[in-house]
User: What shape does this take?
Amino acid sequence: MKEELLKIREVSKHFGGVYAVNGVSLGIRSGSIWGLVGPNGSGKTTLFDTILGLHRPDEGAIYFNSTCISHLAPHQIYALGLVSAFQIPRLFQGLSVLDNMLVAARGHQGDGFLNSLFLRGGWQRQEVEFADRAMEILELLELDRLALSPASELSGGQRKLLEIGRGLMASPTLLLLDEPAAGVNPNLGRRIFDGIENLRREEGLSFFIIEHRLELLFDFAHWVYVMDKGKIVVQGKPQDVARNPEFYQVYLGE
Amino acid sequence: MVEVNWAQVFFNSAVTGSLYLIGAVGLTLTYGLSRFPNFAHAEFIALGAFIGYLVAEQLGLGFLAALAVAFLVTGTIGVLCYRGIFQPLSEGGASIIHLMVASIALGFVLRYSIGALWGWKPSYFTTTWASFEIGPLRFTGLWLWLIFAAIALALAMHFVLVRTKIGKAIRATSSNPELALASGINVNRVILITWFIGAGLAAIAGIFRAADTQIWPMTGWDIILPMFAVAILGGIGNFYGSIVAAFIIGMAENLGVVALISFGLSTEYRTAIAFLILIITLIVKPQGLAMLFRRA
Amino acid sequence: MDPLVYVLDLIVFIGIFGIMSLSLNLEFGFAGLANFGKVAFFLVGAYTYAILSEIGVPFYFCLITGALISAMVGFLVSLPTLRLREDYLAIVILTFGEILRVVVKSERWIGGGVWGMAVSPAISIAGASARVGALVNIGLVYLCLVICFLVVQLLTNSPYGRVMRAIREDEIAAEVLGKDRAKYRAQVFALGSAIAGLAGGLYAQYIQFIDPYMFMPMVTFTVWIMVILGGPANNWGALLGAALVMLFDRGTTIAKDYLALAIDPINLQYILFGVLIILILLYRPQGLLRESKVKTKAIDRVGHERRATKNKGS
Assistant: This one.
């Protein structure tokens, strides 16, 4: 029985009395793709934001690799290996595509104040390696030609890809993706998920994915959680969830 | 132990608070609506003082005419500045800091234009004011007029905001511009009117300030930071909050002077009191007192 | 005044304000921190220099200590302001600078209060002419300028510089990608303040006198004009901006002496400044020199490879 990579126990988050997330418990085990679905406003993104450290849970606790991360700052959670890609890409517009990727690199010596000034040889070498890796990922996403272009010049679909690419660059243990296939054409969407599955298989990355394109998610996910009005109402293997009448009720509304 | 003339302290607080209120109304409303701190507001104040000087002293038309003309002219200049500079910048996607820097640059232009036209040596209003002595209280007619003006302003604004169509439009736009636009409110007109009134009131504050002290191009800068303190303590964009804040800061400054004297500190620190309130409010509770009031 | 000394004096000022410009550019241009209280740190450096040199401390210690104390003040100021929105930060620091000025004005024991205090020059050669004095100062100031320039150039062309820009663009995204924005903000503030403090010390010993009226918000605004004119996030731009503004400033003073104008040139100068800045903000907000890109060996290599494949016609 594999140990849970991410453990969420009875987590609630409210804003001014309105509960966006209400007593959610779930577990993510490593090496698989886990799905989170639900209608708009069900609290999925708020849950992700809370896991990431952008919000503090009002109740409950979150554990990553047995470390309690409920009260950690986002940069500390990143350091533990939990990384995310936003639904609406938050790119560094004034930086080039390659620079965007390099910011995400984990453990860059040159990130430190004194190191960047005095250990130039060290981080220059490291950066060449990071750049190589970044270009590999960019090639996968077919963005390599735009490596030195400003991120502001990318199209909507390309921004989405760069957002995901940045997440991959961070060498995560668990990557949270918020609607990776949203706003991109179906072919690209499927290619993205193929890529995700490849990374899972070859590098052992784990993914926790929010997705509205159920047909895509259900083809790839190992286990799916269904959220409605802040609670988990259904969960199980995709084919089981798809057959569950409660699942359809949730999507069709009251 | 210093003997304190409490009646005088309270009266002075009302005077200080009144001046700050009149000047800060425009600042808080435009900051709330246009979402940037307009540092040129200091120059609207100075402009008012000089136009007032022009009308009252150089043209000899008297104090009341000075107030009226300064209000109208400065209000118009305020609107022109918004249309010519801030609106295009804002629509072009300028950041808050860019708008702020633009307001400072505009301040340069206005301040040194005033300097070019009237010179940098201080001038004075020659209007004489009656002095009064009621018990321990000593005050001049000017101060009485100032308090009266502030009360009149508060009542008038309240009436406008609550009873008139334009007032309701201002409140709606302040709290939710998108919703206001969707409800058919002419948001652009609301903004223009707010800038007009704001600049006009600044002019009036400028005249009172200059009449009490002196007229020189830095008239506005001398008091702009306490006015920012009032705007922020009261909650940016919140008229009712600024009434309370003006009173609080007026009190704080005048009580502070008493405290400074009794501790043997220089009364120069008086200005620092408002500065401290400003900083503490922004750091601890940037919304100021707004939560105590409906958005207005 | 001897025309040559006039020119040398201008060169010294360009140097001192070039250093100030670099420091604001670091904070605002690269890291997005709207430091509207730059003059506060200039003041701290100047007064520290003055007080220490009066008790006989050698000039290099005075300069370094001035920079260090400014850095500490900068660091302390950054702590409570970390989460503030950019305009709130601007207002808080502006106000902080004014509080400092009130303190210095009111307390006689700090640098003479309103009356100010005299400061002896760093390097004085007995019997030297004004020309030699100016040349010595040019040497000292420009040595410091070169050091500061190297430091900021190296810093901004490194992964650290990349992170600074990322935080400027989207601090939440940067935080989620592992960058502790509180730490970066505090460090940038400390370094920027140190550099401004150094400039303050140089200024104090050059003018040989300081008083509170030399440190009004106008100084901060002048430095902002330099950075915006030259182009934010470009260190050469910061220097260019400093040079142009100083030249213009002196130019109008010369005009006052040699030309008869209807408007007092000082007024005209600031009116034109204001108009210029407004025009720049409206039509060329990136300033004269565009933002410099992060230049590291890795990025250069990628650039070369791009060009190679392009030339191969792939």
Notes: Chain C has twelve helices and two strands.
